[in-house]
Amino acid sequence: MPDRSETPGPLGVALVGHSFMGAVHSHAWRTVDHVGTPAVRTRRAVLVGRDAQRTAEAAQQLGWEGSSTDWREVLERDDVHVVDVCTPGDSHAEIAVAALRAGKHVLCEKPLATTVEEAEEMAAAAAEAARRGVRSMVAFNYRRVPALALARELVAAGRLGDVRHVRAVYLQDWIVDPEFPLTWRLRKETAGAGALGDIGSHIVDAAQFVTGQVIQGVTGVLETFVKQRPLEAGPAGRGTGLGASASTEYGEVTVDDAAAFIARGDGGALMTFEATRFATGRKNAMRLEVNGSKGSLAFDFESMNELSFHDATLPDAEGGFRRILATEPTHPHVGNWWPPGHGLGYDHAFVHELQDFLTAVAEGRDPAPSFADGLQVQRVLAAVERSAANGSTHTPV
Ligand code: SOE
């Protein structure tokens, strides 16, 4: 462990975006200085948004020193060292690349970009910045859920043997109502993809993170169940995200509502994926099951403190899935929190993400997942889209 008796800092942080993700990240930035011994201290210097009044109000509510409507101006500030990008996908590349060029460390929400080309530009800028000691990371937060991090450790320690199957699903239902408005997440030009990009990207990252296998070929199908939706009511026309309200005019949904695809991992695993916003009753069911020659693991984010483990090396009479409560101080990320059994929530994974990001910055190394990792996920998503567009369907005869 590095000696952190004199924690350096503070690093000034600029957060761009103050909708759902901006609020979750704000919570994490408020908390990270107070958990364990931080690698470096931070200051919540400035919150950036499009509307001056709404951004100023959000800054006050979320605990930022000031607010701005001009991220370019913020990049010129010497007291800003970190830029956290929580905007809709279509502005990730422009902001992140400019921030890296300005010498700011960058944390960027997922999926990294709206296209492979943008993600390539971002990964190239990140690689160039790293040579100047400037760090970057893509925010696949579920990696930092203790039970999923434990799953990775068990696979890496060989407890599952050879991994043969990965079954990954991410099920939500927040747009089941056909009158839910056409927010930025439902338009290709702002989001890049629908369920595939927004939540499919999480399970692609999680499957690769847990198994250590890199996805090779994919075959996929996409579906848009509701093709027209009311436009959003409201000033900015890009909505407040998940809680937006509808106007009386309608527009076309240009992304998928659901995606299903199969893939091969480079270690021989057969992987199946399903991402949907139409699984009524499932709110944030991000689930992963891994079957190996020596055992299996199962995780469901809706019970995020638990990991089920079947050890196939035990005698048959003692087999079966047992529940590991991933709340011991010896479990990944848990040590600085509450006594065993007291459980963590969605927000804690974002604090862990910042802890790892800041530790890498302080220690002068690149954090993971990198922009190159984000690009690789983007390529998988694009391959699913190509397959869905060109794929052959065989009618049972
Ligand atoms: C909406 O589908 C959303 O907020 C995603 O954008 C997040 O990445 C996921 O964690 C929760 O759901």
A few lines on this structure:
With 397 residues, the protein is of the alpha/beta class. It has helices spanning 20-32, 52-62, 71-75, 92-101, 116-130, 146-156, 188-191, 195-211, 346-363, 371-390; strands spanning 11-16, 42-48, 66-68, 82-85, 105-109, 136-139, 163-171, 215-223, 228-232, 246-252, 258-265, 270-276, 285-292, 295-300, 306-311, 322-325.
How would you describe this protein?
The chain has 397 residues and is α/β, with parallel strands linked by helices. It has two domains: 4-142, NAD(P)-binding Rossmann-like Domain (Rossmann fold, 3-Layer(aba) Sandwich); 146-303 and 305-344 and 378-390, Dihydrodipicolinate Reductase, domain 2, CATH 3.30.360.10. 31% of the residues lie in helices and 25% in strands. The chain has helices at 20-32, 52-62, 71-75, 92-101, 116-130, 146-156, 188-191, 195-211, 346-363, 371-390, and strands at 11-16, 42-48, 66-68, 82-85, 105-109, 136-139, 163-171, 215-223, 228-232, 246-252, 258-265, 270-276, 285-292, 295-300, 306-311, 322-325. An eight-stranded mixed beta sheet has the order 8-11-12-7-13-14-15-16. The longest helix is centred in the C-terminal third of the chain and has 20 residues, at 371-390. It is globular, with a radius of gyration of 21 Å. The N and C termini lie far apart (64 Å). The site of alpha-L-sorbopyranose has 5 residues, from helix 8.
